[in-house]
Write a structure and sequence with these properties.
With 589 residues, the protein is an alpha+beta fold. The chain has three domains: 147 residues, Jelly Rolls, CATH 2.60.120.10; 151 residues, Jelly Rolls (Sandwich); 164 residues, Alpha-Beta Plaits (2-Layer Sandwich). The chain is built from 17 helices and 24 strands. Strands 11, 12, 13, 14, 15 and 16 form a six-stranded antiparallel beta sheet that branches. It has a four-stranded antiparallel beta sheet with strand order 1-10-3-8. α7 crosses α8 and α8 packs across α9. The protein starts with a helix and ends with a helix.
């Protein structure tokens, strides 16, 4: 039996190599740190919370504590924008007092919402870039370092929000819907990570709203069936029906068929909603986001009891290979998984319906599950493969590249597929891919970017590599741009024409939210200087910052300057949402 001295030495040795720390909890960072008991008493007496069965909530997550940590009471002045159409958001809102209006149509001028107008540079402007030797990158006027003249009166400086100065006139001819006390809005976008479908503006002198974080809304719905039923009903009546109506499998149905199909469909979500934060932590610790960190939706060999239709997010399709698995494809919004097995069973009833592949959620995904029985009643079985490809895996990828006789050189290698999936590069529609065998490090791409953007290059010729390929730290203009979540002024947004993700410097307040959310290190906060080279500072002499990133040269009629300037065809802005795009580009040699 060990003596006391030996045990004391062991304890000292253990203490020298360990450090005690409290385990982080979800509620360590409340939505409103100033939430008071008086406000909580008011909320608990307000519908729908007053009618909720508090005993249905577990002791670890009582309703009152969910409201304390995951809600905040916000007040909006008349004309202040609560939600912007096409923004990404993580919050839903409940009207406590006053009224808000949902602007259905026509769309509001994007510039009034804090977004930059779409303007191409003139020939003279493009020519002037060649002689622009401004020593200070992207100088701003000292008179208006944060807002252009037509917008600086429309920014709430305390919250960094935007409001419409002539709101009554703007909406006088618009189709709107009023939301009053007790009505919920924004919940579908918050839960499904879809862009906001309409702009919502406060229409009374003061509109008092309760903001829910998506985590709080999710937990309340989990333990209160009435709220879940309400949200579910709204989704089925609006978004779900529209989505299914536009899909080739069900486009032949009449109205009653859509209603019945929506009733039988199941809504499911997988993975972490704030996946960018989790991914960045894993990457920082040197632990790539492998399949071990990805929730399994369907496992290879399991009975196929229905199909999964991806509404938002991305999923990895894999298959057993040797002692492990290999990635065959990654599929996103609009894709269908599991139909191939069921369709084959319809043709050959003796064939068992077992899943041919595994499906995992990459980050956060929102899916619609259609049971097999519902497919048999409602699906159009006469679709050709051209109208609706049954398999989520391209034919030339059904076997490893070195074993597939059908491979024509357009299928990526297994190692490239794993690299793409682990770094989440499938999200990019215009990723900067550099062939380092061709690149001579001349930096013509960097100089071209700098001359196009007033002396400030918008990317780094640096990034993760596999073999001879580098994916540079340049904005990829993602399908799911998590950088847009949380921008208070809407300064970072998609352009209305091409859908590029851009930043309006006139309404960027330098909060850094977009840079913190970007999982690809593609946004940087830079100090703003005047045209004379002076640093612009605020009242406390802190430097004024703004976010900068690649805008894909949206002002240039010729397209991305970096790609056009490369003398060796070593750089391409590539759509990585299609798995064969890189292989096809490399095949050009």
């Amino acid at each position: 039996m060990p003596n006391a001295l030996h045990m004391a030495k062991s304890d000292n040795n253990l203490a020298s190599i360990t450090r005690q720390a409290s385990r982080p909890k979800r509620w360590d960072d409340p939505l409103d740190p100033g939430m008071t008991d008086a406000t909580l008493d008011m909320l608990m007496a307000t519908e729908p919370f007053a009618s909720m069965n508090v005993s249905a909530f577990p002791a670890a997550t009582p309703l009152r504590e969910i409201l304390r940590a995951d809600t905040a009471v916000r007040e909006f002045a008349a004309g202040e924008i609560v939600l912007r159409k096409d923004d990404y958001g993580t919050s839903a809102f409940l009207v406590l007092e006053g009224e808000v209006q949902v602007i259905l149509r026509p769309d509001i001028d994007p510039e009034l919402l804090g977004r930059a107008p779409s303007v191409k540079k003139s020939f003279i402007g493009r020519l002037a870039q060649l002689w622009n030797n401004n020593p200070e990158p992207e100088g701003w006027s000292k008179k208006s370092p944060r807002a252009s003249d037509n917008l600086k009166g429309s920014i709430n400086k305390e919250r960094g929000s935007v409001y419409l100065q002539d709101y009554p006139q703007i909406v006088s001819d618009a189709q709107t819907a009023a939301l009053k006390k007790g009505q919920l809005f924004g919940e579908i976008s918050a839960l499904s990570r879809m862009p906001r479908t309409a702009t919502v503006v406060a229409s009374t002198e003061t509109a008092r709203l309760l903001e829910f974080s998506w985590e709080g809304l999710r937990d309340i719905m989990r333990y209160d069936s009435a709220l879940k039923t309400q949200v579910d009903k709204i989704y089925r009546e609006n978004s779900l029906k529209i989505f299914l109506r536009n899909h080739p499998l069900f486009s032949h149905l009449d109205e009653s068929g859509y209603v019945q199909l929506c009733e039988e469909a199941e809504l499911e979500s997988f993975g972490e909603y704030n996946w960018s934060g989790a991914y960045l932590r894993l990457a920082k610790d040197g632990d790539p986001a492998t399949s071990a960190n990805e929730p399994v939706i369907v496992r290879e060999g399991e009975y196929s009891n229905g199909i999964y239709m991806i509404r938002a997010g991305f999923c990895r399709v894999s298959q057993k290979y040797g002692n492990g698995e290999r990635t065959l494809n990654y599929i996103g919004a609009g894709s269908v998984f599991g139909y191939e097995e069921i369709a084959n069973h319809w043709k050959n009833p003796r064939q068992e319906m077992h899943s041919l592949y595994s499906l995992r959620s990459l980050g956060y995904s929102h899916l619609i599950f259609i049971p097999t029985a519902s497919l048999e009643k409602y699906a159009n079985r006469r679709l050709s493969e051209a109208d609706f490809p049954a398999s989520p895996v391209p034919k030339n990828m059904s076997k490893p590249a070195d074993e597939s006789s059908a491979n024509d050189g357009t299928a990526p290698s297994a190692s490239l597929m794993e690299f793409m999936a682990e770094h989440r590069f499938f999200n990019g529609t215009k990723s900067m891919v550099i062939d380092m065998d061709r690149c001579t490090r001349c930096d013509d791409c960097v100089r071209a970017c700098a001359s196009t953007h007033d002396g400030n290059p918008r990317f780094l010729r640096h990034g993760p590599m596999i073999d001879n390929l580098m994916i540079a730290n340049a904005c990829m203009h993602c399908v799911d741009p998590v950088c847009m979540i949380g921008c208070p002024t809407g300064a970072i947004h998609r352009t209305s024409f091409g859908g590029e993700v851009v930043i309006n410097p006139a309404t960027c307040i330098g909060c850094g939210t977009c840079a913190a959310n970007c999982p690809y290190d593609s946004i940087r906060m830079v100090e703003v200087r005047s045209s004379q080279g002076e640093f612009l500072v605020d009242e406390e002499f802190q430097p004024i910052l703004k976010a900068t990133k690649c805008d894909l040269c949206v002002e240039q009629t010729s397209g991305p300057a970096c790609q056009n300037a490369c003398p060796h065809d070593a750089l391409s802005r590539t759509d990585l949402t299609h798995v064969t795009s890189i292989a096809q580009w490399l095949k050009r040699k």
